TrEMBL record:
Domain spans labelled SLH: 291-353, 363-426, 428-491
Matches recorded under PROSITE patterns: SLH (PS51272)
Keyword Signal attached: yes
First and last residue of the signal peptide: 1-22
Keyword Protein biosynthesis attached: no
Keywords: Repeat, Signal
Descriptive protein name: S-layer homology domain-containing protein
InterPro entries noted in UniProt: SLH_dom
Chain segments annotated as transmembrane: none
Length: 499
């Protein structure tokens, strides 16, 4: 979020992971798409379908987005490919933001305060000017900030009224829209479902009013995705055989379908319909970042070799050591560190440390066995403050204790904030050893099974109280990353668009 005033700075520190919905993830509420969603300060390439002329037409151009604490401004300059249609649109929105620090939620309300829109059509019938004379729009979005992801949902309703050449007719659009989205370190997706009911009002040769009706459905999806892709090193006489590249790419997609009248003063012709559909998209060039190549001497051929290499490449695992120890038990302190680094939760802690470094405040004990001098202090502090890892009794963290499968699964589901997907107790999971699952882990294991993060063994056991090995922990965190990259996108895009 752009830090304009001290109040905004304070809110940004509290809600670091909260996306700025109206800016970061869309270009207004018109059903269009734009390129390079992450850059909020520059003019963007933009596409939008125009329907109010009765002939669906793709307009392309730019949108400029300006943001302040209490105001959003969108300036559009668009035209058709053949140059026969041009549009200018200027929209000002009032922003009202209500942050609830206790529940880590934010409500944003946007209302139209100023508008101007002019569409000029030059075709064989002469010149027509569509002027927006009335525009009402009310939008509200709520975001829920969980430890590693922010989820949000919103909706809007609006009405636009245009005059044609001042006296030759009117077009009225009634608009409803819904927004569903999430944002986290590994990606973000927002899906908009928009419906427009359009009324075309003209006169026949006897000056009698004619009303014709049509409707449009638009699905817009904004996506940001980080991926790890393996590359081979082709030379034979070299010190490594390959490695990973971290890529990040933005994609926006607009799918639309329409049923519109064929505009005519002839009553028979006015009953015919123009039906069609289409799709438009933008993609950015993926960024490229080579990941470090670990040279562990004890993982070649191990079933989790590539999981270990991926995390070491990301520097989640220390890849400078000669040995990894894949069959050693995972320690609680190491898992806390891996989770924080894999989800980029340490960034927030480091920013806070830099802000408070001038005061040189003494670090308080986190637990009875975690003092301010503990080497992994900042990682344990992060998981404690975000309430994804807690102590083991007597105010102890047991950093060198073995991590159980039940603990690992619970940490991940708490980080996602998905405990609500489990039924109210008492209930049973599908695992044969359900009676061995600790009560505090029951909901997390049920949800992890439902969303595909933890499936248990092939013979139907989850082994909740067994220690997790380092190899298993590496595979588990990679499965968590894949879930964030792929599964969440399916649920927030394909499942909604096809609903």
């Amino acid at each position: 979020m752009k830090k304009i005033l001290s109040l905004v700075i304070i809110l940004a520190l509290v809600f670091t992971a909260m996306p700025n919905y109206a800016i970061l993830n869309n270009a207004g509420f018109e059903g269009g798409i734009h390129k390079n969603e992450r850059n909020t300060q520059k003019t963007k390439e933009y596409k939008e379908m125009l329907f109010i002329t009765g002939t669906p037409t793709l307009l392309q151009g730019t949108v400029e987005i300006k943001e302040s604490e209490k105001k959003l401004t969108y300036n559009y300059k668009l035209s058709s490919k053949d140059g026969k249609i041009s549009m200018t649109r200027n929209i000002d929105l009032e922003r009202i933001i209500d942050d609830n620090t206790y529940h880590r939620q934010r409500v944003e309300v946007n209302n139209i305060t100023k508008f101007k829109e002019t569409i000029t059509v030059n075709d064989e019938d002469g010149k027509k000017t569509y002027a927006l004379t009335n525009y009402l729009l009310h939008n509200s979005t709520i975001g829920d900030n969980q430890p590693v992801a922010t989820y949000y949902q919103g909706g809007w309703g609006g009405s636009k009224e245009y005059t044609i050449n001042k006296t030759e007719g009117k077009v009225i659009e009634e608009i409803t829209g819904d927004i569903y989205g999430y944002d986290h370190y590994w990606g973000g997706t927002e899906t908009q479902k928009i419906h427009k009911d359009i009324t075309f009002i003209t006169e026949d040769e006897n000056y009698k009013e004619i009303k014709q009706y049509g409707y449009v459905d638009i699905d817009v999806s904004f996506n940001r995705t980080k991926k790890m892709e393996y590359f081979d090193n082709l030379p034979y006489q070299t010190s490594f055989d390959g490695g990973y590249t971290l890529t990040e790419q933005d994609e926006t997609v607009m799918k639309y379908s329409y049923t519109l009248p064929i505009l005519s003063s002839n009553k028979a012709a006015s009953n015919r319909k123009n039906i069609g559909s289409g799709i438009e998209r933008f993609e950015t060039l993926p960024t490229q970042q080579k990941l470090f190549i670990p040279k562990f001497e004890d993982i070649k051929g191990n079933w989790a070799e590539w999981d270990i290499k991926r995390l070491a490449g990301l520097q989640v695992i220390d890849g400078t050591q000669r040995y990894f120890g894949p069959n050693l038990n995972m320690k609680r302190t190491d898992f806390a560190k891996w989770i924080v680094l894999a989800m980029d939760l340490a960034g927030e802690e480091e920013q806070t440390s830099r802000r408070t470094s001038r005061t040189q405040e003494e670090k308080p004990n986190l637990f009875a066995d975690i003092s301010g001098e503990y080497p992994d202090y900042k990682y344990i502090k992060a998981v404690k403050e975000k309430e994804i890892m807690s102590g083991v009794g007597d105010n102890k963290f047991a950093p060198e204790g073995n991590l159980t499968r039940a603990e690992a699964i619970t940490i991940v589901i708490r980080a996602l904030g998905l405990e609500r997907l489990a039924p109210n107790p008492p209930f049973r999971t599908r695992f044969i050893d359900d009676n061995q699952i600790p009560l505090w882990a029951k909901k997390a294991i049920y949800v992890a099974d439902q969303v595909g993060i933890a499936k248990g063994s092939t013979d139907g056991y989850i082994h909740p109280n067994e220690p997790m090995t380092k190899a298993e922990a590496a595979a588990f965190i990679n499965r968590f990353i894949t879930y964030l990259q792929e599964n969440m996108k399916i649920d927030h895009r394909e499942n909604i668009i096809n609903y």
